[in-house]
Design brief:
two-stranded antiparallel sheet; 245 residues; 7 helices; single chain; disordered C terminus; 2 domains; alpha/beta; Spore Coat Polysaccharide Biosynthesis Protein SpsA, Chain A; 30% helix; 26% strand
């Protein structure tokens, strides 16, 4: 497929309807608004995003997104299962658009509804980082791993006994100050469309870091996470990205 790339920035929102942890999680209410609305608002307030597209298999999600001015592309049944990689969903969506329109945006922003605390400035900073480095394939927001969750503190349980997974490293780096800094996923990925089309992944060879405070990397996975997220918003611990707050 012959694809050209323009200077636009598109946001893709993957939002299937088959969540198991919270039924129809993407539409679960968070402080009076559907979870998905938070990333939509962040995308709308971004200075860089030209177009937002939701990939979904659910009529209610599709209807809501259309009402918010977000384009909707139906997701094929084969890409609706629990074990489907989000990269496969993105590739299918981009190839479909390329086939219909012949061109893709240079840069794609992945906005996952389970990360409701993405701020417009997170998006814009990441896009700016990627634009400033022509050799970079992607930018990923990251947050520093807490001491208690550090890899060297991980335990395994074998035959009823608890043991450290990394024994030698734990002995050498027994306190917080000695441990190397490790990072986990923050709240969003920004990447070149060409990268995922040509390599099949969103990272590429050169992925730049953008560090966010841990609280903004909060992932709403299960019911308890939803309750915690509501508390964070209710007590003003999160900057209010959306005008509906």
């Amino acid at each position: 497929m012959d694809i050209s790339y323009n200077n636009e920035v598109w946001a893709i929102i993957p939002a299937r309807g088959g969540s198991k942890s919270i039924p129809l999680k993407n539409m679960a209410e968070l402080c009076g608004q559907p979870l998905i609305k938070y990333v939509i608002e962040a995308g709308k307030k971004s200075e860089h995003i030209n177009r937002m597209i939701c990939s979904t298999d659910h009529d209610r999600i599709a209807s809501f997104c259309k009402g918010e001015g977000v384009e909707v592309m139906p997701r094929p049944d084969i890409l609706c299962g629990d074990s489907v990689a989000v990269s496969d969903v993105i590739i299918d969506l981009l190839k479909t658009i390329a086939g219909n329109e012949g061109a893709l945006a240079d840069i794609v922003v992945l906005l996952e509804p389970t990360y409701p605390f993405i701020l417009p400035e997170h998006i814009d900073d990441c896009v700016s980082l990627l634009k400033a480095d022509p050799e970079a394939d992607s930018v990923q927001s990251v947050t520093e791993v807490q001491h208690n969750n550090h890899a060297y503190n991980q335990r395994s349980i074998n035959e009823g006994k608890v043991d450290f997974v990394f024994k030698k490293e734990r002995l050498k780096c027994f306190n917080k100050q000695l441990k190397p800094k490790y990072f986990i996923h923050g709240n969003l990925f920004v990447f070149r469309a060409r990268t995922i089309i040509e390599t099949g992944n969103i990272y590429g060879e050169k992925s730049l870091p953008y560090q966010v405070p841990r609280i903004y990397s909060f992932d709403v996975d299960g019911p308890q996470d939803l309750e915690i997220a509501q508390c964070l918003l209710k007590y003003g611990l999160i900057s209010k990205a959306g005008s509906f707050f």
